[in-house]
UniProtKB/TrEMBL annotation:
<dbReference type="InterPro" id="IPR050430">
    <property type="entry name" value="Peptidase_S1"/>
</dbReference>
<keyword id="KW-0378">Hydrolase</keyword>
<dbReference type="InterPro" id="IPR001254">
    <property type="entry name" value="Trypsin_dom"/>
</dbReference>
<dbReference type="InterPro" id="IPR043504">
    <property type="entry name" value="Peptidase_S1_PA_chymotrypsin"/>
</dbReference>
<comment type="similarity">
    <text>Belongs to the peptidase S1 family.</text>
</comment>
<keyword id="KW-0720">Serine protease</keyword>
<protein>
    <recommendedName>
        <fullName>Peptidase S1 domain-containing protein</fullName>
    </recommendedName>
</protein>
<feature type="signal peptide">
    <location>
        <begin position="1"/>
        <end position="16"/>
    </location>
</feature>
<keyword id="KW-1015">Disulfide bond</keyword>
<keyword id="KW-0732">Signal</keyword>
<dbReference type="InterPro" id="IPR009003">
    <property type="entry name" value="Peptidase_S1_PA"/>
</dbReference>
<keyword id="KW-0645">Protease</keyword>
<feature type="domain" description="Peptidase S1">
    <location>
        <begin position="29"/>
        <end position="257"/>
    </location>
</feature>
<dbReference type="InterPro" id="IPR001314">
    <property type="entry name" value="Peptidase_S1A"/>
</dbReference>
<dbReference type="Pfam" id="PF00089">
    <property type="entry name" value="Trypsin"/>
</dbReference>
Length: 262
């Protein structure tokens, strides 16, 4: 299909080689309200060569989940760093190198018509973080755990405005795969889940890939892709797509276990 291909093309133009938005007026999270990091202490920003590249979620003292599409698999892991524990995206909190990462093996093999599938990766930090009211791991949805349509979820990320970067949350409703596929005119695989609002204009944008979507205190999804490359989210395409953590939970658990044994 043409639109997803255009989406990836314009994503590359927008982000440039470093993954930093070209326009300082570009919005990140759309339609959110300001929060403090203590309301989302699992929140992480992923930096590549010193620039904000993507977002993620802390799931253990030394492990972050993010979008597989955020990583250049040919690059050394130490070119990436992760910041946690700060409402600011580029200062304060703890800032650690990534020692290694693992990308879901299906990410490159099973991409569907130009959009990412199995869009998830695990980052191991070079040292454990120190848990506090500003830094905490979030539990994940259980293996194949489903969420009913219309459930309230929370997306978190940063927005850029004249005052700098503001940590924000956006409340969204889950959209079932069949309805989402009709909205987006695109197949939704079992490794994907959708969320949005009926009116649109709330969700994530280009700098938010990997942003955590939380339901009932557990990590349900990671921001993955959308169809409206001009506005990121709109009335025409009010739903956006997230990597569905529960369907990839077995891979996550097994990969983490194998890393401990090596």
């Amino acid at each position: 299909m043409l639109i997803p291909v255009l989406f990836l093309f314009f994503q590359a133009l927008w982000l440039g080689e470093t993954g930093v938005a070209v326009s300082k007026n570009a919005k990140f999270i759309i339609g959110g309200t300001d929060i403090d990091i203590t309301e989302a202490p699992y929140m992480a920003s992923v930096h590549y060569k010193g620039h904000v590249h993507c977002l993620g979620a802390l799931i253990a003292k030394d492990i972050v989940l993010t979008s597989a599409g955020c990583l250049r698999t040919s690059e050394n892991a130490t070119l990436y760093k992760v910041r946690v524990g700060s409402s600011q995206i580029s200062e304060d909190g703890e800032y650690h190198h990534v020692s290694k990462f693992a990308v879901h093996p299906g990410m490159t093999e099973e991409n569907y018509e130009g959009v990412p599938n199995n869009d998830i990766a695990i980052l191991w930090l070079s040292k454990p973080v120190t848990f506090s009211d500003k830094i905490a791991a979030i539990p994940m949805k259980d293996h194949n755990e489903e969420i009913d349509e219309g459930q309230v979820t929370q997306l978190t990320g940063w927005e850029f405005n004249e005052d700098g970067y503001k940590l924000q949350k956006v409340m969204l409703q889950t959209v079932n795969a069949t309805h989402c596929a009709k909205q987006l005119k695109h197949r939704i695989t079992p490794q994907m889940m959708c969320a949005g609002t009926p009116e649109g204009d709330k969700g994530f944008c280009y700098e938010d890939f990997g942003a955590p979507l939380v339901h009932n205190g557990k990590l349900a999804g990671l921001a993955s892709w959308f169809m409206d490359w001009m506005r990121c989210v709109s009335r025409k395409f009010p739903a956006q797509v997230y990597s569905k953590v529960s369907t990839m939970r077995s891979w996550i658990d097994e990969t983490i276990k194998n890393n401990k044994n090596n």
